[in-house]
């Protein structure tokens, strides 16, 4: 059911994102930009490979992966992580690990909107 995520999504609102970025150790200037940018997220699939492309005037990033396969990711804030994305209970769950730390990002569709929840 990952197909339900395929499409272009635009950030409308963000709650507690600054606190999340602080917990990750993101610097003040990057946090300020992160708080004002409203990126577009383009999700596509091709032959079992999922692409998540985040586009904004500040930065564009893209990751490509297969579900349940760990891969190396360079995050928008420059962290080098080991990342795995799974599909659990209708949610895309992205788990990033680096330097003994872990963070998760859950994405799900609710009432035609993509809801993303970040947990440090």
From TrEMBL:
Keywords annotated in UniProt: Retinol-binding, Transport, Vitamin A
GO molecular function: retinal binding; retinol binding
Residue ranges constituting the Cytosolic fatty-acid binding proteins domain according to the UniProt record: 7-24
Record-linked Pfam families: Lipocalin
Homology family: Belongs to the calycin superfamily. Fatty-acid binding protein (FABP) family.
Purpose of the protein: Cytosolic CRABPs may regulate the access of retinoic acid to the nuclear retinoic acid receptors.
The name this protein goes by in its record: Cellular retinoic acid-binding protein 1
Species this chain originates from: Monopterus albus (Swamp eel)
